[in-house]
């Protein structure tokens, strides 16, 4: 793998500390201004590696690696690093808590008008958005894991009090974010012969079969998901649509809208989450917000969250309800994307949504849900390889691994990005809002690394790792190389000079996504190497021969052999035992060790024969 996550993350941390900590305090805000999402992204650039990669831990300075602390020396000396990081985390939560104590999850400066020049109202800037719910879940879980360890090494009452305050605030914000996700879930039911239905059938009907037949087969494929949506989704948004799901000739889609769904009921919980605001978002799923919500919910059920016991009783109940929606949504999109017996709808690029909009970026989002489902159902290498082909083609079509012309529309996905409208945002006054996404490159790299870690076929895995190297090279070209923000992202003209744009400020939106890629790369590297059945069989055969020759040398060697020969045989026995131990998990190592043993045994045999000949 060409990516070197340790050194590259240290370089990024060095730049973040230099840019973010000035005049004795943490400085929020970047290229897109300060808001509840961007500021969380800025903090997660540090917190994600610190909580997910053991060598980057900061919660115990005495056990931290020297190079890690040195990278953050702008924050202060060893013990000051976690303290000042804790101060920044507390400041973030206070910054996005209303005077009445209600956590705020507004989109702020990330909201844009549908048409340039229109003025956005303050009330619109304050609308809650799923991206903020999701990233708050991730950040608050990181905080709770961090404070759980840091609390054990502090003794000063003032520090203990600060840790307690941060834990309480983080727990409250986590609960509120989970409630927000439950109230943003959407089930969109529509007749098969209406526009939404026709678009869905057009997407799944890759074999051009009669429409009525496809409708029936799709309804049958989605029957279990349909039933669970009707019977099991009982709280939050999405429950009211259950009665419509059983009507004849009805199809549906499920996922997360862009914000709190219009008329979303309030969630009953024993925790204090403040005021549960009224929703205004369209009751229909958006692919982008669906994928970010799924990533957050996955963190709630992760092994780390369970082992550390980060959720209280009320949060566990909310997490269970979110996990149900996670499973149903993942299964729905995977079923639709792989429907039929021929070419998958996912392979028919670009993906087309039920409202008639199509982008390659949407294909990338759907591919992530397909892979998540494949992990759950233990899919074959053949199916995983088909998804790998989609990722490779997306890299070509988005002009990452294929040369771009002077100016073509394919570059718009990189800059200024894809913009889609947020239906319902105009209901509080002002123009209809829009949302922009421009992270296809880092998201594609993250998906590629995740898929490579799942493949057991060496050739396919190698091809994906080669693709990840090309994607990383592309991202490095987009690094800001000059000015005070050098070492951070994003400079799109670095990869596409024809864009003729020059950025001087860092984008925490983009930098955080690059950090996510490096965290994923570190996880892939830390996993056991791919086990080859061919090498395992070869190792077994070599060990059989080596064992036989070893036993023969011990049998035929004289009991009066010298000390050096006895030591040699003893060492060979140790090496053979090592080869047997690692044969199943690391057959390549077993082959290498056994080959060396065979060479040493051959030398002993030749020496013994020569001695016999002389005598």
Outline the biggest β-sheet. Answer: 3 strands, antiparallel
Shape: globular
Number of contiguous helices: 21
From the alpha carbons, calculate the radius of gyration and give it in angstroms: 28 Å
Report the span from N to C terminus: 56 Å
Query: Which strands sit side by side, in order, in the main sheet?
Result: 3-9-8
What is shown here, in short?
The chain is mostly helical. The protein is 56% helix and 6% strand. Strand 6 (351-352) and strand 7 form a beta hairpin.
Give a structural overview.
With about 625 residues, this protein is mainly α. The protein is globular. The chain has a 3-stranded antiparallel β-sheet, with no helix packed on it. Strands 1-2 form a two-stranded antiparallel sheet. Strands 4-5 form a two-stranded antiparallel sheet. The mean pLDDT is about 90.
Which labels suit this protein?
615 residues; mainly alpha; 3-stranded antiparallel β-sheet; two-stranded antiparallel sheet; 21 helices; 56% helix
List the helices and strands and how they pair.
Elements (H helix, E strand, L loop, with lengths): L4 H16 E2 L2 E2 L11 H15 L13 H6 L8 H16 L16 E2 L8 H4 L4 H24 L3 H26 L2 E7 L3 H10 L6 H11 L1 H9 L18 E7 L30 H14 L2 H6 L4 H25 L13 E2 L5 E2 H18 L3 H17 L20 E5 L10 E5 L2 H15 L3 H20 L30 H19 L6 H24 L6 H20 L4 H28 L1
Antiparallel strand pairs: 1-2, 3-9, 4-5, 6-7, 8-9
């Amino acid at each position: 793998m060409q990516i070197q996550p340790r050194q590259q993350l240290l370089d990024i941390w060095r730049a973040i500390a230099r840019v973010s900590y000035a005049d004795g305090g943490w400085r929020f805000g970047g290229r897109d201004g300060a808001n509840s999402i961007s500021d969380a992204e800025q903090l997660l650039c540090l917190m994600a590696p610190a909580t997910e990669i053991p060598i980057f831990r900061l919660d115990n300075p005495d056990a931290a690696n020297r190079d890690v602390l040195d990278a953050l020396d702008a924050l202060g000396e060893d013990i000051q690093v976690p303290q000042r990081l804790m101060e920044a985390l507390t400041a973030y939560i206070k910054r996005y808590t209303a005077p009445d104590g209600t956590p705020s999850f507004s989109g702020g400066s990330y909201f844009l008008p549908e048409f340039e020049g229109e003025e956005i109202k303050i009330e619109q800037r304050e609308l809650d958005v799923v991206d903020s719910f999701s990233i708050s879940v991730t950040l608050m879980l990181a905080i709770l894991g961090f404070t759980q360890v840091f609390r054990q090494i502090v003794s000063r009452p003032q520090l203990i009090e600060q840790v307690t305050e941060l834990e309480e605030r983080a727990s409250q914000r986590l609960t509120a974010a989970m409630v927000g996700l439950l109230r943003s879930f959407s089930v969109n039911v529509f007749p098969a012969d209406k526009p939404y239905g026709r678009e869905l059938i057009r997407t799944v009907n890759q074999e051009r079969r009669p429409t009525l037949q496809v409708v029936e087969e799709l309804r049958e494929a989605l029957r279990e998901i349909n039933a669970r949506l009707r019977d099991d989704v009982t709280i939050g948004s999405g429950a009211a649509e259950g009665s419509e799901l059983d009507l004849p000739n009805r199809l549906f889609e499920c996922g997360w809208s862009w914000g709190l769904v219009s008329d979303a009921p309030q969630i009953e919980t024993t925790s204090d989450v403040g005021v549960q605001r009224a929703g205004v978002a369209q009751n229909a799923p958006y692919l982008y917000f669906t994928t970010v919500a799924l990533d957050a919910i996955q963190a709630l059920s992760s092994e780390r969250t369970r082992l550390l016991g980060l959720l209280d009783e009320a949060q566990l109940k909310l997490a269970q309800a979110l996990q149900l929606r996670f499973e149903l949504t993942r299964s729905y999109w995977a079923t639709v994307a792989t429907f039929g017996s021929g070419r998958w709808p996912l392979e028919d690029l670009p993906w087309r949504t039920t409202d008639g909009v199509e982008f390659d970026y949407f294909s990338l989002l759907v591919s992530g849900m397909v892979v998540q489902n494949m992990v759950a159902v233990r899919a074959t290498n053949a199916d995983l390889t088909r998804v790998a082909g989609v990722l490779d083609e997306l890299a070509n079509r988005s002009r990452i691994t294929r040369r771009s012309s002077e100016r073509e529309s394919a570059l718009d996905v990189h800059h200024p990005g894809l913009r889609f409208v947020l239906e319902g945002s105009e209901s509080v006054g002002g123009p209809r809002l829009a949302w922009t996404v421009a992270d296809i490159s880092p998201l594609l790299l993250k998906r590629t690394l995740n898929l490579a870690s799942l493949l057991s076929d060496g050739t396919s895995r190698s091809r994906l790792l080669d693709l990840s190297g090309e994607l990383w090279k592309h991202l490095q070209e987009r690094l800001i190389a000059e000015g005070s923000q050098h070492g951070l992202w994003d400079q799109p003209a670095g990869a596409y000079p024809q864009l003729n744009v020059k950025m001087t400020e860092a984008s925490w939106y983009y930098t955080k996504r690059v950090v996510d890629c490096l965290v994923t790369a570190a996880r892939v590297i830390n996993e056991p190497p791919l086990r080859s059945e061919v090498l395992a069989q070869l190792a077994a055969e070599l060990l059989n021969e080596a064992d036989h020759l070893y036993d023969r040398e011990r049998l035929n060697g004289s009991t009066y052999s010298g000390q050096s020969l006895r030591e040699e045989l003893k060492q060979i026995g140790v090496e053979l035992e090592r080869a047997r131990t690692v044969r199943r998990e690391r057959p390549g190592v077993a082959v290498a060790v056994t080959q060396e043993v065979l060479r040493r045994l051959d030398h002993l045999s030749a020496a013994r024969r020569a001695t016999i000949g002389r005598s």
